[in-house]
Design goal:
This protein has 148 residues and is an alpha+beta fold. The chain contains 3 helices and 8 strands.
Length: 148
């Protein structure tokens, strides 16, 4: 399946795109993972938003975070694919493009992520290595990972 990718600043997002982003993030992080947390964390306005559409449906998304917002390094967060579209390689494409666009947008340098522990091997495929001890965030085991 070929996705149509869009990269936008917060101000460039249409009302419909923003609604789709928040809906997808809520569908996965709140409902699927049964995690009560405040998704709107005042970082979205400072970030770039990478969106993958299948026809008109948002099915893949990540937030590209400039250095100094979440960590001293640039970061990639809120990485999500729609459960109805998983196991089709979209997550791999999303992360490859996320790394590429983060470097294009923010320059070369390390990228730090806060990853759910069970996704460690997935992120290692993109050059990320564990850079912290395990910690619990919103009831889910996490680790920080760094890509140099």
């Amino acid at each position: 399946m070929q996705l149509n990718w869009r990269l936008k600043t917060f101000g460039e997002l249409s009302n419909y795109e923003l609604y789709d982003v928040l809906k997808l993030r809520s569908k996965v992080f709140v409902v699927e993972q049964n995690c009560v947390f405040l998704d709107m964390d005042d970082k979205d306005t400072k970030c770039l938003h990478l969106m993958g559409f299948a026809d008109s449906a948002l099915v893949a998304y990540s937030r590209l975070v400039p250095a100094g917002v979440s960590y001293k390094e640039m970061s990639i967060g809120r990485v999500v694919t729609d459960p109805d579209y998983r196991a089709k390689g979209m997550g791999m494409e999303l992360m490859e493009l996320s790394v590429e666009k983060a470097i294009e947008s923010y320059g070369t340098g390390p990228i730090r992520i806060g990853a759910q522990l069970y996704l460690k091997a997935f992120y290692e495929r993109f050059g990320f290595n564990i850079n912290s001890t395990e910690y619990i965030e919103d009831g889910i085991p996490h680790i920080e990972m760094l890509r140099l």
